[in-house]
TrEMBL record:
Annotated source species: Thalassotalea psychrophila
VWFA domain segment(s): 108-294
Top-level taxon: Bacteria
Entry keyword set: Membrane, Transmembrane, Transmembrane helix
Pfam family, one: VWA_2
Gene3D superfamilies on file: von Willebrand factor, type A domain (3.40.50.410)
TM ranges: 22-42, 78-95, 304-323
Protein name as catalogued: VWA domain-containing protein
Length: 331
C-alpha cells in the first residue's frame, strides 16, 4: 500500500514539475545586481582583503573580531535569503492552472473497453470485466456531464455510444456489455484505430483515449505510436487486473512483463498507465491525467495560479527580525 501511495505522489509531483514555469521570468535578472550588492557588503567587512597589503594574515587574524562571522543568523545572511525569495515572488512561480467562468470544456473522453475472453478472468471477483464497468461508472460520476464516447473491442472494434454528455445512457450500455456480443473474441487493439480516429475528428480540443484492458500484444505499441505522433491527444491505459506489486495478486493476475507492455503502450499514446486498485485511487489518478491533458492544451483559456504570493509569509518573518534591538548595528 505504501509503495502505491508513493507511486501516486511521485506521478503527481512529476506532472506538476513538468508544468513549472515563471509568469514573469525577466524579474530573475534582478538577482544579478542583488548578488553584486551582497558581495560588496561581504567584501566591505573582509578585513583580510582590506589589510593584506599592509600586514600578514596571522597579524590580521589576531587583531580582527570575527564573532559576527560565527553567528548563524546575521543581517547580511538574512538579506541574501530575503533577496532570493523576493526575486522568486516577483518572477511569479506557477505550476497549476485555474478554471475561469468563460472556459468551456470541449475535450472528449473516448473509453475503449476490452470485452475479450481474458476479461472474464476471476482474479478480480466476480470478473475483470465487471470490475472494469464499476470503475468506469465511478469515473463517469466524477466527471459529471463532460463529453464522453464508448468503444468496445475484442477481435474487432465498434462504437457503442457516440460522443454524448448523458452519462446515464453510457452506464446503460455498459450494463449490457458482455464478451458474447462480439463476433470475434480474441484481442486485437489495432482495430481501435479506425473508430477512435472518427471520434477524434469531431473535436478540436486535446482529448483522451482511455484504454481499459488487462493485456496487450508486443507489436501494438508501434501501431499506436505512429497514430498518436500525428495527434494532439493522449491515451491512458487502465490495467484491470491484480497488480503483482500489490502483494495480493494470484497466479491469474498480471505479470511484470504484461505491466511493462501496458506501460509501453501508454508511452506510445503520449499518456500514462494506471494500475487497478481496490480503492478509488486509480479512478482519481485517471481523472487527473484527463484534466492535465485538457489544461495543457488550453493554456490561453486557463490562467495560471501565481504561487509566489505564498512566499510573502516567509518574507514577513524575515522582515520582522529587523525590529530587534541592536540588529542593524551588526552590519
Amino acid at each position: 500500500m505504501g509503495d502505491f501511495i508513493f507511486s501516486i505522489w511521485d506521478g503527481l509531483a512529476l506532472s506538476q514539475l513538468s508544468n513549472f514555469h515563471f509568469l514573469r521570468p525577466l524579474w530573475l535578472l534582478s538577482a544579478i545586481p542583488l548578488f553584486i550588492f551582497y558581495r560588496l557588503l561581504v567584501t566591505k567587512d573582509d578585513l583580510f582583503t582590506q589589510w593584506r597589503g599592509y600586514m600578514s594574515d596571522k597579524v590580521i587574524a589576531n587583531l580582527a573580531q570575527t564573532e559576527s562571522n560565527k553567528r548563524l543568523f546575521t543581517p547580511k545572511k538574512l538579506f541574501a535569503i530575503f533577496a532570493v525569495i523576493a526575486t522568486l515572488v516577483m518572477a511569479g512561480p506557477s505550476w497549476k492552472q485555474q478554471q475561469t467562468p468563460f472556459f468551456v470544456d470541449e475535450s472528449v473522453l473516448i473509453i475503449a473497453l476490452d470485452v475479450s475472453e481474458s476479461m472474464q478472468s476471476s482474479d478480480l471477483q466476480p470478473s475483470r470485466l465487471l470490475r472494469a464497468k464499476q470503475k468506469i461508472n465511478e469515473l463517469l460520476d466524477m466527471r459529471g456531464d463532460a463529453k464522453t464516447a464508448l468503444v468496445v473491442y475484442a477481435g474487432s472494434a465498434h462504437i457503442a455510444m457516440p460522443i454524448t454528455q448523458d452519462r446515464k445512457m453510457i452506464a446503460h450500455f455498459l450494463d449490457v456489455l458482455d464478451t458474447n456480443i462480439m463476433p470475434a473474441r480474441e484481442k486485437l487493439e489495432q482495430s481501435l484505430i479506425a473508430p477512435i480516429e472518427r471520434l477524434l475528428a469531431q473535436t478540436k480540443s486535446p482529448s483522451t483515449v482511455l484504454l481499459v484492458t488487462d493485456s496487450t500484444a508486443n507489436n501494438t505499441a508501434t501501431t499506436f505510436k505512429e497514430f498518436f505522433s500525428k495527434q494532439a491527444h493522449q491515451m491512458v491505459v487502465w490495467a484491470i487486473a491484480e497488480n503483482p506489486d500489490s502483494g495480493l495478486a494470484s497466479s491469474a493476475g498480471l505479470s511484470g512483463v504484461q505491466l511493462d507492455q501496458l506501460e509501453s503502450l501508454a508511452d506510445a499514446g503520449n499518456g500514462t498507465m494506471v494500475a487497478f486498485t481496490h480503492s478509488s485511487d486509480d479512478v482519481k489518478q485517471v481523472s487527473r491525467s484527463i484534466k492535465n491533458n485538457m489544461f495543457l492544451g488550453d493554456d490561453n483559456s486557463q490562467p495560471w495560479y501565481d504561487s509566489g504570493y505564498l512566499l510573502l509569509f516567509i518574507l514577513l518573518v524575515l522582515q520582522a527580525t529587523w525590529f530587534r534591538r541592536g540588529w542593524t548595528m551588526q552590519w
